[in-house]
Design brief:
The protein is mainly β and 124 residues long. The chain is 3% helix and 43% strand. It contains one helix and nine strands; from the N terminus they run E-E-E-H-E-E-E-E-E-E. The chain has a six-stranded antiparallel beta sheet with strand order 1-2-3-9-4-7, with no helix packed on it. A three-stranded antiparallel beta sheet has the order 6-5-8, with no helix packed on it. Strand 5 and strand 6 form a beta hairpin. The protein is globular and about 40 Å long. The termini are far apart. It comes from Arthrobacter sedimenti. InterPro entries: RmlC-like_jellyroll, RmlC_Cupin_sf. This is Cupin domain-containing protein.
Length: 124
C-alpha cells in the first residue's frame, strides 16, 4: 500500500466541522483535511442503523465500508451473512459493506473514521 502524503500543515476541529449530518440519534461530523475526509460518528443509546440511518439512505443494509477507531461505547455489527463482531472503546476496526449495527448498553458510542465519512448517513 502506498504511503499517504500531505502538502500543507493543517489542523481542524471536529467541534467546528465542515459538514454535519443528523439522522435520528446520529451525529456525523465531517472535516476535510490533507486531501482526505475524516468523520467523527456519535451514536446515542438505542441507536440502530436499520432504524436511524436507513431512514435517510433508503438501502436494506449499510452499503458503506468503514475503517476507524472507537473511543467510547460499544457497537455490535452484523453482516448480511449473519456474522457478528462487537467493537469496544480502544478497538480499531474494519467493516465491509452490507451490514446492520447497534449501540449496546446505555453508553454513547463515539468513533473516528478514515473511510466512509464522505458518504455515511448522507441522504439519498
Amino acid at each position: 500500500m502506498p504511503a499517504v502524503t500531505v502538502k500543507d500543515l493543517e489542523s481542524k476541529s471536529f467541534d467546528q466541522p465542515d459538514e454535519k449530518r443528523r439522522p435520528p440519534k446520529t451525529q456525523v461530523d465531517v472535516v476535510n483535511i490533507g486531501g482526505a475526509t475524516l468523520g467523527r460518528f456519535t451514536f446515542e443509546p438505542g441507536w440502530r442503523w436499520s432504524e436511524t440511518v436507513k431512514t435517510v439512505v433508503h438501502t436494506d443494509s449499510c452499503q458503506v465500508s468503514h475503517l476507524g477507531v472507537c473511543t467510547a461505547g460499544t457497537l455490535t455489527v452484523q453482516l448480511d451473512d449473519g456474522s457478528r463482531m462487537t467493537i469496544h472503546a480502544g478497538d480499531a476496526y474494519s467493516i465491509p459493506a452490507g451490514h446492520d449495527a447497534w449501540v449496546e448498553n446505555d453508553e454513547t458510542y463515539v468513533s473516528y473514521e478514515v473511510m466512509s465519512a464522505a458518504e455515511f448517513a448522507k441522504p439519498a
